[in-house]
Structures are given as structure tokens and as C-alpha cells.
């Protein structure tokens, strides 16, 4: 039987997770991943990569919990295996602190991470401007290691990789039977989605090997995440801002805010500065549609718009995308056993 030709567009954490899942789960598919930029030049590469989630307004909470749990379980298995250092995936414990007591003291993912509890008053003393906090162990996934590791895993499963800018889905219609769109912010032009927009994020990498625990202010703008080779500190959340240049005003603000939470950072050396645009949307788009391309109907599966939660949700939404591809296969060959 001829393999079904599947194109995955995008080589960030969503694209590679989806490509790996399809290649490993659906052997009847021949999968090619196409992208203009690969690691280390993707938005995912600069992400702090801590597993942590916000609630999307219009997606059933049960589905969001499944996305989180599937991703957490997948990465936890890697963190507890011999692949942990090569994949850049490991456990990380720390605090999320709040200036005011939140209405919801237990987020929807609190039972999906490890050891979630409220901070004791003694623990909060070191953060005098904050009234409430949570302690938990989660996972840090460093995409500068994880993406090359996923690429290797994808190719081992028979996947093909092609570096190419895709300007329209029409370019793929004659060579592929199913197109999976994981182009993130690129979906604004690739599929004409007006609902996807950038949220600019600037981070710094510091040399501070003495730091062992993460600290995150609940506003999501100030955070300190120790990693394997450096500590990532940030950040900014500038909606609709397309600037990719480092802003020295932001650099100064990040260092001031993070040093206020962790004074030892005043002695840390700045190793690098980085800017990325989070591919944001009111809700991620994980769905399929039939599109007319060059006179033929082509199945398109979308998986983009995760904002700053791409690493957190990648494996979960990838598994959903595999389910959508499987539906497309059933409709193409209703008699085939898949």
C-alpha cells in the first residue's frame, strides 16, 4: 500500500513534537517536516521551558488538563531516563509568588505536578512584597537540547526534514495528502489567521550556578529559572510588539526586578540576551479542515497559537493532532485497518 504523504510545517517544539508523534504512531504515513528555521534559530530555543500553564477561556478544562498531563508524563519519563542530559529535560523545584492572595489558590494543574502545596509563612518571609505563594516540582525542558534530540528521534522513525520557506499551502498540495500546520506566528500569513498575534518576550541568561530553585512572580513578567548551563531570567509580555532587537531598557528592568527577588543575582555575569515572539491566540487552534488547493481537496490539521505555553502543551496537543490525522486517514481509506 502506498504510504500517505504528510507534511508538517514548522520546526519549533510544536512542529517537532507533532511530527514525531505522527511518525511513531501512524506507520502508514510518510512524514516530512518543512521549515525555514531550525534549532537554534526557533522561538522555542529561547523559551525558559518550565512546565506551567494558564487557562484558555474557550477550551474545556478537561481538554486542557489532558494536554498538560500528556506533556508532563512524556517529559517526566525522559527526565527519569538516561536521555535526560542529552534531551535537556530535568525536574525543577521552586516557588510561584503572589502580591495579593489569588481567588483560585489551586490552579487546574496543581494535582498534575509533583508535591504542590501552599508556601508556609516562614518561606514567604524572604519575599516581603508578596502575600501568598505555592511550592511545587515541575519539569524544565531546554529546547536548545530537546529540539535536536527530537529531530534525531523523528529521523529514526523514518521522518524526512527539509529546510524550506513555505509561503502558501498551495506549494504543498501536489506533493502531500495531508498538511499539518504548526507554523506558530507564521499562521497569520500562511493560513490568513487574523487572531494570532505576537507577545514579545526578552530574557537574559546569567551565570549563577549557586541557584537551585526557580522563582516566578504570578504576573508572569518576572521569573528566575535555573538551567543546566545558566539561569534564565525575564521577562517581558509586550502584546502586538514585533521587535526582535534587544531593548536595553528591558534588560535593566529585568535585572532590577529579578535582583529584588534574588539579591545574589546582582553578582551574576550576563552571558547572553535574547528576544522571541510568542505565537499567541485567545485559544490554541487544534482542529482540522478540508481546504481547496489547486483544484483538489486537501486535509489540513492545525496545531498552533500556544502563546508562552508551547513547551508545556506540545506533546498533549501533538497527540490530539495525531488523532485528527488518523480521522483524515479513515476518511481517505475507510476500509483500511489503522
Automatic annotation (TrEMBL):
| Domain FAD dependent oxidoreductase residue range list | 5-318
UniProt EC number: 1.4.3.1
Residues that bind FAD, according to the entry? 43-44, 307-312
GO terms of biological process kind: D-amino acid catabolic process; L-aspartate catabolic process
Q: Which family does it belong to?
A: Belongs to the DAMOX/DASOX family.
Query: What is the native source organism of this protein?
Result: Parambassis ranga
Gene that encodes the chain? ddo
The coiled-coil segments of this chain are none
Q: Where in the cell is it found?
A: Peroxisome matrix
Name the residues that bind D-dopa: 223, 278, 308
Please list the cofactors this protein needs: FAD
The protein's predominant localisation is other
Task: Tell me the keywords, alphabetical order.
Answer: FAD, Flavoprotein, Oxidoreductase, Peroxisome
GO MF terms, alphabetically ordered: D-aspartate oxidase activity; FAD binding
Catalytic reaction(s) noted: D-glutamate + O2 + H2O = 2-oxoglutarate + H2O2 + NH4(+); D-aspartate + O2 + H2O = oxaloacetate + H2O2 + NH4(+)
> Gene3D superfamilies of this UniProt entry?
D-Amino Acid Oxidase, subunit A, domain 2, NAD(P)-binding Rossmann-like Domain
- Per the record, what is one GO cellular component? peroxisomal matrix
**Which purpose does this protein serve, as stated in its record?**
Selectively catalyzes the oxidative deamination of acidic amino acids. Suppresses the level of D-aspartate in the brain, an amino acid that can act as an agonist for glutamate receptors. Protects the organism from the toxicity of D-amino acids. May also function in the intestine.
SUPFAM superfamilies associated with the record: FAD-linked reductases, C-terminal domain (SSF54373), Nucleotide-binding domain (SSF51971)
Task: Report the superkingdom from the record.
Answer: Eukaryota
Kindly provide the name given to this protein in its UniProt entry: D-aspartate oxidase
Amino acid at each position: 500500500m502506498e504510504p500517505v504523504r504528510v507534511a508538517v510545517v514548522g520546526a519549533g517544539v510544536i512542529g517537532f513534537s507533532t511530527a514525531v508523534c505522527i511518525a511513531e504512531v501512524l506507520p502508514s504515513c510518510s512524514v516530512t517536516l518543512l521549515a525555514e528555521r531550525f534549532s537554534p534559530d526557533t522561538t522555542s530555543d529561547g523559551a525558559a521551558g518550565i512546565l506551567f500553564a494558564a487557562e484558555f477561556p474557550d477550551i474545556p478544562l478537561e481538554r486542557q488538563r489532558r494536554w498538560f498531563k500528556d506533556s508532563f508524563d512524556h517529559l517526566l519519563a525522559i527526565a527519569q531516563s538516561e536521555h535526560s542530559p542529552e534531551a535537556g529535560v530535568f525536574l525543577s523545584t521552586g516557588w510561584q509568588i503572589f502580591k495579593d492572595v489569588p481567588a483560585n489558590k489551586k490552579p487546574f494543574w496543581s494535582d498534575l505536578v509533583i508535591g504542590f502545596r501552599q508556601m508556609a509563612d516562614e518561606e514567604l518571609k524572604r519575599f516581603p512584597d508578596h502575600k501568598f505563594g505555592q511550592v511545587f516540582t515541575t519539569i524544565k525542558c531546554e529546547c536548545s537540547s530537546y529540539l535536536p534530540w527530537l529531530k534525531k528521534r523523528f529521523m529514526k522513525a523514518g521522518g524526512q526534514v527539509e529546510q524550506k520557506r513555505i509561503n502558501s499551502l498551495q506549494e504543498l498540495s501536489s506533493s502531500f495528502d495531508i498538511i499539518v500546520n504548526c507554523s506558530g506566528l507564521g499562521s497569520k500569513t500562511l493560513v490568513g489567521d487574523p487572531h494570532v498575534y505576537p507577545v514579545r518576550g526578552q530574557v537574559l541568561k546569567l551565570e549563577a550556578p549557586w541557584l537551585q530553585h526557580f522563582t516566578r512572580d504570578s504576573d508572569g513578567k518576572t521569573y528566575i529559572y535555573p538551567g543546566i548551563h545558566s539561569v534564565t531570567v525575564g521577562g517581558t509580555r509586550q502584546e502586538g510588539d514585533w521587535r526582535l532587537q534587544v531593548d536595553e531598557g528591558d534588560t535593566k528592568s529585568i535585572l532590577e526586578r529579578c535582583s529584588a527577588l534574588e539579591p545574589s543575582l546582582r553578582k551574576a555575569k550576563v552571558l547572553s540576551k535574547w528576544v522571541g515572539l510568542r505565537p499567541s491566540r485567545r485559544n490554541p487552534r487544534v482542529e482540522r479542515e478540508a481546504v481547496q488547493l489547486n483544484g483538489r481537496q486537501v486535509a489540513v490539521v492545525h496545531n498552533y497559537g500556544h502563546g508562552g505555553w508551547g513547551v508545556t502543551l506540545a506533546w498533549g496537543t501533538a497527540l490530539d493532532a495525531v488523532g485528527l490525522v488518523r480521522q483524515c486517514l479513515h476518511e481517505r481509506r475507510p476500509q483500511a485497518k489503522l
